[in-house]
Design goal:
Alpha-Beta Plaits; globular; binds iron/sulfur cluster; two-stranded antiparallel ribbon
């Protein structure tokens, strides 16, 4: 299984990664303090810096094709593998 790693301060919230994910493993959601997969962006991020970011909605669907990583226009995504649950 795979996990996406997002540089949330680089992401421009375009949604391309979600659009190209054929198995529909990714979703978009809006965060205040927490980044994708629970990574902490900042303990004191102002509301104005809320953003919409991709997250791994259903890791069981991800086949590791890397399209999301390769199609991101700002190279905000990378992937790591995780042990199956
Ligand atoms: S690696 Fe492929 S299947 Fe997995 S989230 Fe990215 S686009 Fe979707
Ligand atoms: S393609 Fe890249 S910039 Fe666009 S939402 Fe996905 S991670 Fe963010």
């Amino acid at each position: 299984m795979f996990r996406i790693v997002l540089q949330a301060k680089v992401c421009v919230s375009c949604g391309i990664c979600v659009d190209v994910c054929r198995p529909v493993a990714l979703g978009l959601r809006t965060f205040r303090n927490n980044g994708v997969e629970g990574a902490r962006l900042s303990a004191s991020l102002p509301v104005a810096e809320m953003g919409t970011f991709p997250y791994m909605r259903d890791a069981a669907r991800c086949d590791g094709c890397m399209l999301c990583v390769n199609e991101c226009p700002v190279e905000a995504l990378s992937m790591t593998s995780i042990a199956p649950m």
